[in-house]
Amino acid sequence: MLQIEHEFTLPVGLLGEDGTLHRDGTMRLATAADEILPLADVRVQRNPAYLSVVLLSRVVTRLGGVETITPKTIEGLFAADLAHLQALYNEVNAVDEAGGSGAACAHCGEEVRTGQERLGGSGAIPPSAFGTR
Questions:
Q1: What is the distance between the alpha carbons of residues 104 and 62, in angstroms, rounded to a whole number?
Q2: Tens of pLDDT along 82-128?
Q3: Most exposed residue of 96, 97, 110, 129, measured as fewest CB within 10 angstroms of its CB?
Q4: What values do phi and psi take at 89, rounded to 5?
C-alpha cells in the first residue's frame, strides 16, 4: 500500500522563538511540482544548494507546533536535523543512491539507469549540497 505521509523525529529539534523544541513531524511524498517549481525560485537560481531548503519546506507538512513550514523554518534547523530530513526525503521518494532508477526495459529486462537526475533537474539531495565544515 502506498504511504503518502511519513512521521519523523528530528535528532535535535527546531528551537522555537518561545524556547519550545519541536522534534516530531510529518513529511509527505514529493510531487512533480515540488521538484520543478522551486527551480524558478531566485534563491535557487543564485545558489543551487538552496533547492534542498525549498523542497523540504514544501514536503514537511508538520513540525511540532509550528503553524506554517516555510524555507525560513528549514533554514532554522540544526545541521543534524537538516541532514536527517535530507535522508528521509531521499528514502521516501525512492531515490536510489547507487544511481539506478529501479526501472527495467520492457523488451530486454535490462535496468534503465538514469543516474540521480530527476524531473526538474533535482536528484537525491546530497549532504554535500549544504557544504562541509
A1: 36
A2: 999 999 999 999 865 554 445 556 556 665 444 444 433 455 555 54
A3: 110
A4: -55, -50
